[in-house]
Amino acid sequence: MPEAQAYDQAQDREEAKNRDGAVDAMRAFAILGVVLGHWLVTALVVDGTGHRLHVTSPLKTMPELTPISWVLQTLAVFFFVGGYSAAKSLRPGEPWGRRLRRRLARFARPLPALMIVWLPVAAVLSWAGFSGSSIRVLVELVLSPLWFLCVYVVLTALTPLIAASWNRFGIAGAAVLAAATAGIDLGRFALGAPGWTGWAAVLTAWLLPFYLGIGWADGALRSRRAGLALLGGGAASAALLVLFAGYPASMVGVPGAAVSNLSPPTLAAVAFGLAQTGLAVLLHGPLTRWTRRAGPRSVIAAANRSAMAIYLWHQTAMISVTVGALLAFGRLNGLHTVPDQPEWVAERLAWLVAFGGALAAGRAVAAAARRPRPLVRGTAPGTNPAPGPYISRGVS
Fold first, then answer.
1. Labelling 223: which of 118, 239, 287, 288 has CA 20 to 30 A away?
2. Contact 69/251 with Cβ under 8 angstroms?
3. Do the Cβ atoms of 29 and 77 come closer than 8 Å?
4. Are strands 52-56 and 43-47 parallel, antiparallel or unpaired?
């Protein structure tokens, strides 16, 4: 084994031994929030009697459901614990390229499989009678979560520079990032700047919790006072921006709305993210005690091992149930109907079980496909023996 690879494996074992269970739990809860949020507020509606689909949201027709977005929009937690983990993984003297490959390996592996699966799926959907516009809607749903990975890769690549910035500027650097997002919003909402300038906030808005996560790993923001200040200040700022500055109350995008707090992120999303960061700081102690128990620790560990696969494939699981049920049974309530009545919510909650089952089944199939077949007795590795009574036909 090459010396560098042996060193990396030794370091990975050491990092695994010293993992922060509370941080892993936050990551798992953040993933759960994103998955449930997409499954609840994304409605694929069947138009007429054909196979034409369009996307809408119950938040558009039932704005009283807006508080759901406050619970299930957990992106700031992702970036906060991401910054913490990235900072903890820094190794003195490690080359930049080697570190980046090591950190991003688990993110890159599932992506080719997603693309490989969806190429024939799109062809099958076309053969089954779905229009080009409907297939485009489905593919966009599958690809839309990838923006998160792009931003995360950039921030991970820049971790040494971000950590150096924290060491120099401390919490003042966070204020600069918040002010930068405010300036971007001021330009496009009040000063007539082109709308595309808002996309600069994709970096400033999500760099802020990542930056704070690096500071957290460095020992900052550990006190209850810091957590309360972030939670209270962020929540109050978000409320004031919604009530008096015209920002949307929903923390996720709503189809047809003039402004989205996520596409691109706004100052209201930044304030909301600071509140989430403060809550994460306050919950670290209780979560640490909870994850010391064997049961929760094993569940959280399993969730983190599958985190990226769950994130990438949860939309595919929802689509497979939606399209499969349409082809087999026709239009079904809570799955293909317009989300404009309270009963739709109850119907949708029942369908979440089917979505979760499809996701679990897909994970099981993928795990079985990756598992090596047992060697036949007396056969050297890499050979292809003739069939015989001792050859296993199954998958171990």
1. 239
2. yes
3. yes
4. antiparallel
Residue 201 has pLDDT above 50, yes or no: yes
Rounded distance between C-alpha atoms, residue 307 and residue 366, angstroms: 14
Give the residue from 113, 98, 97, 85 showing the smallest Cα distance to 7. 98
**Cβ of 305: how many Cβ atoms within 10 Å?**
11
Of 54, 53, 45, give the one whose Cα is nearest residue 130. 53
For residue 23, give the nearest of 315, 253, 285 by alpha carbon: 285
How far is 159 from 87, CA to CA, in rounded Å?
7
Could you list the residue range(s) of the whole structural domain that residue 123 is in? Answer: 20-169+209-370
Tokens describing residue 1? 């084994």
375-381 long-range contacts, Cβ below 8 Å, gap at least 24? none
Q: Is residue 3 part of a domain?
A: no
Integer CA distances (angstroms), 26 to 74, 75, 176, 293, 342, in order: 10, 11, 26, 16, 31
Q: How far apart are CA 350 and CA 343, in angstroms?
A: 11
- My answer on whether omega of the bond before 95 falls inside 30° of 0, hence cis, is no
Residue 197 forms part of a structural domain: no
Q: Which residue's entry shows tokens 């403060």?
A: 278
Structure tokens, 69: 């977005």
pLDDT tens across 217-228, in order?
999 999 999 999
H or E element in which residue 269 lies: helix 267-290
Question: CA neighbours within 13 Å on the CB side: how many for 271?
Answer: 20
CA distances from 61 to 65, 159, 253, 345 (A): 9, 42, 13, 12
Write down the pTM of the prediction: 0.87
The count of domains in the chain is 1
Reported as a single tens digit per residue, the pLDDT across 9-39 is 444 444 555 689 999 999 999 999 999 999 9
User: Does residue 65 belong to any structural domain of this protein?
Assistant: yes
Burial class (CB in 10 A: 0-12, 13-18, 19+), 308: middle
Is the C-alpha dihedral spanning 126, 128, 133, 138 positive or negative? negative
Residue 387 lies inside a defined structural domain of this protein? no
Could you count the other beta carbons within 10 Å of the beta carbon of residue 27? Answer: 22
Interatomic CA distance for residues 121 and 127, integer angstroms:
10
